[in-house]
């Protein structure tokens, strides 16, 4: 029902946690992921692992998505190589990870560095704009149209609860989720809405996914705190976003446009 056969789908930030999961999901449903990332080592590892696991060699591009010249050049290459592009998943972003014995104190608004602000917005928001500008245009000239999926966050719908980050790393140190994360993820929703009307007559749909946090190696106290804010009383598993992505990429959602879909265990419902 949600078969992606003959669909070429660009995934940015492809070598990251969610990006890897998305590329796997596309392959599992007979699609062709085109993996873009700035980390050469992780990108090569992704290509090698997917070939070993699925007997499929994917096309990869080592690109800085904040570099418009690189994206423009790559879009010309992809058009020539694949003839058509059916989808774009704007997934790349910088997200400070919570780790033991590593303080996020400098993420406080009062201490937040302007250089860091510019860098994170450049990747998470400007990069998504540049990719949409060039790869979205390729989708718009596809006679079948296609879809752009932007990865926002539950924190694109609600503000971060800073009490979650209190005393995680060092005694009596308040850690913070940075302002940039919220600004970027709210901005991604605005980008989604804009794109949903811009190429609509070319049958290009634009939708956003707002994932909740994935349970990894966060401090136990953080995981205990955040679960109380989630109606399902748990964080997400890494593969729980695959089905929604595939559903949104498939031809069975041709009337889905401008949608913002939270997958957060109900956290943003409270």
Can you tell me about this structure?
The protein has 270 residues and is an alpha/beta fold. The chain is 39% helix and 14% strand. The protein is built from 7 helices and 7 strands, in the order E-H-E-H-E-H-E-H-E-H-E-H-H-E. It has helices at 17-28, 40-54, 68-82, 114-140, 179-198, 220-227, 242-249, and strands spanning 8-12, 32-37, 59-62, 87-90, 146-151, 204-211, 260-263. The protein has a 7-stranded parallel beta sheet with strand order 3-2-1-4-5-6-7, with helices on both faces. Helix 1 links the parallel strand 1 and strand 2.
Name the shape in a single word: globular
The amount of helix comes to 25-40%
Rg is 18 Å
Low-confidence stretches: none
- Give the terminus-to-terminus CA distance: 33 Å
Secondary-structure blueprint:
Elements: E1 8-12, H1 17-28, E2 32-37, H2 40-54, E3 59-62, H3 68-82, E4 87-90, H4 114-140, E5 146-151, H5 179-198, E6 204-211, H6 220-227, H7 242-249, E7 260-263
Parallel strand pairs: 1-2, 1-4, 2-3, 4-5, 5-6, 6-7
Helix pairs in contact: 1-7, 3-4, 4-5
């Amino acid at each position: 029902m949600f078969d992606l056969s003959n669909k070429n789908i660009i995934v940015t930030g492809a070598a990251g946690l969610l990006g890897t999961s998305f590329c796997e999901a596309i392959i599992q449903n007979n699609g062709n992921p085109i993996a873009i990332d700035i980390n050469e080592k992780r990108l090569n590892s992704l290509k090698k692992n997917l070939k070993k696991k699925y007997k499929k060699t994917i096309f990869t591009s080592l690109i800085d998505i904040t570099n418009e010249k690189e994206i423009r050049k790559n879009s010309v290459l992809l058009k020539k190589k694949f003839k058509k592009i059916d989808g774009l998943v704007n997934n790349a972003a910088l997200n400070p990870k919570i780790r033991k014995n590593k303080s996020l104190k400098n993420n406080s608004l009062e201490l937040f560095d302007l250089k860091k602000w510019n860098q994170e917005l450049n990747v998470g928001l400007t990069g998504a704009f540049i990719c949409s500008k060039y790869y979205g245009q390729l989708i718009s000239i596809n006679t079948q149209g296609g879809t752009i999926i932007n990865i926002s966050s539950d924190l694109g719908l609600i503000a971060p609860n800073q009490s979650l980050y209190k005393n995680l790393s060092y005694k009596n140190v308040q850690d913070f989720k940075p302002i940039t994360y919220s600004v970027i993820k709210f901005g991604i929703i605005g980008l989604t809405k804009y794109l949903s009307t811009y190429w609509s007559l070319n049958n290009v749909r634009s939708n956003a996914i707002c994932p909740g946090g994935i349970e990894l190696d966060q401090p136990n106290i953080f995981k205990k705190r955040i679960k109380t804010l989630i109606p399902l009383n748990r964080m997400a598993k890494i593969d729980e976003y695959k089905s929604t992505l595939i559903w949104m990429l498939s031809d069975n959602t041709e009337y889905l446009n401008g949608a913002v879909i939270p997958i957060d265990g109900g956290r943003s419902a409270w």
